[in-house]
Amino acid sequence: MQFTLRLVSVVALATMVLASPAYNRDVEASIVSNAELDNWLRTTDAVLTFTGTAKGPLAKRSALNTRVVYCNRRSGSVCGGDCTVYEGNSACLNAPDTTCLMATTDVAFCDRGGCGGSCNTFNSCGTRLDGGFCFTPGTRSINVPFT
Fold this sequence. Notes:
Layout: H1 2-19, H2 34-43, E1 47-52, E2 66-75, E3 78-88, E4 91-103, E5 108-110, E6 119-121, E7 134-144
Parallel strand pairs: 1-3
Antiparallel strand pairs: 2-3, 2-4, 4-7, 5-6, 5-7
C-alpha cells in the first residue's frame, strides 16, 4: 500500500514537471519601465543625444510620453555606440543606421524612411539583447504610437 502511494506520488510529480511550460527569454523583448531606462542612462558609456521633449537623463517627464533609445552599435549582447534618446508622442523618427533599440511602449521599427516598407513591433523582437534592447539591423525609421 505504501509502495503504491509513493509510486503514484512520484508519477504525479513527474507529470507536473513535464507538463510545465518552459520559459524562453529569446522569444520577446520586453517593454522597459521608465526606471529601467533611467538606470541604463545612468550606467551606460554610450554617446547620448536627446531629442523630442527629452532634456536629459533624469529630467522630469510626462507619464504619457513614450521614451525610445536607439543606437548604432551592437557588441555581443550589448547595445551602445552613438545613441539617441527620444521622448514624445505619436511620431515617425528618422533613424538610419539603427542597430538596436529599447522603448517604454510598443513601437514599430521599419526598414524604410518615413515609417514605410516592412515594419515589426518591438514586442515581436527576434533577438533580445541585454538591458531590454532588441537587435534591429536595417532599421531606417521608428513609429512611436500615440499614448
